Amino acid sequence: MTEARGSDGRPGEHARYAPGTPCWVSLMVHGMAATQEFYAALFGWEFRPGPQQLGPYVRALLDGREVAGIGQLPPDRHLPIAWTPYLASDDAHRTAETARLCGGTIGVGPLDAGEAGRMAIGSDPTGAVFGIWQAARHRGTAVSGMPGTPVWNELVTFESATVAKFYETVFGYEEEPVVSADFDYVTLSVEGRAVAGIHGVGHALPRDRGPHWLTYFEVADTDEALLRLTELGGHVVKPAEDGERGRVATVTDPEGARFCLLQRP
After folding, report:
1. Is the per-residue pLDDT at 4 higher than 80?
2. Among residues 143, 157, 167, 183, which one has the fewest Cβ atoms lying within 10 Å of its Cβ?
3. Rounded to whole angstroms, how far apart are CA atoms 26 and 67?
4. What is the largest CA-CA distance in the chain?
5. Those residues with Cβ within 8 angstroms of residue 90's Cβ, 6 or more apart along the chain or in another chain
6. In whole numbers, what is the pLDDT of the chain averaged over residues?
7. Radius of gyration of the chain (CA)
8. The CATH number of 150-263 is which of 3.10.180.10, 3.40.640.10, 3.40.50.300, 3.30.70.100?
9. Residue pair 150/141 in contact by the 8 Å Cβ criterion
10. pLDDT category, 84, cuts 50, 70, 90?
């Protein structure tokens, strides 16, 4: 995710998201109240109601600024519980049509989300789910660069090359593959800025998940956040380790939504 910072280098608000940039993340769950309690305790989020087009929905806030959304799944819908990134678009209808023409599927929309904007939910040719957001009043995540905000989004899939072409065609990304015999990774850039990644993991892809997008949330201290997460009923999938982006751990919330905690250097 691109960052907005003031002249003093501190976290700042976003003015506009360029097309293709991850601009929002949303989670659909069965237990709205319990999920809000979990993330409030983990990230310090507060909540207020959002558009109700797809059922009960709240927006998570940090210091009064919107950072993410949580919605209620209908009781009869047994979909995977997962964080979904929304990619910015100037024209949700055109982006959805392009996705269809390139082998993707549009499952919801495009439809109006009140005065907030226009949205669609689709999947790429491998089945990984993503959202499309055409902003009106609601531009997306209002602040970044502080604990509790989305900091990166990464597609975990079988191999990067084929699906990268899909995203490049639909959203206009520039690609930068990592040249390595044993590491399959492509960085997606918008206007010269890295905004997302595609990680090909082959047979290491979890069988119960399939290809999926993974959201990284910034934390001040990964190890401390892991302790808090397990006390709150979350689970550790991959313990904390130091990497190129910082100290990262892969976890799930109590309903099974997978995400990463990232303490940047």
Report:
1. no
2. 183
3. 9
4. 50
5. 19, 134
6. 92
7. 17
8. 3.10.180.10
9. yes
10. very high
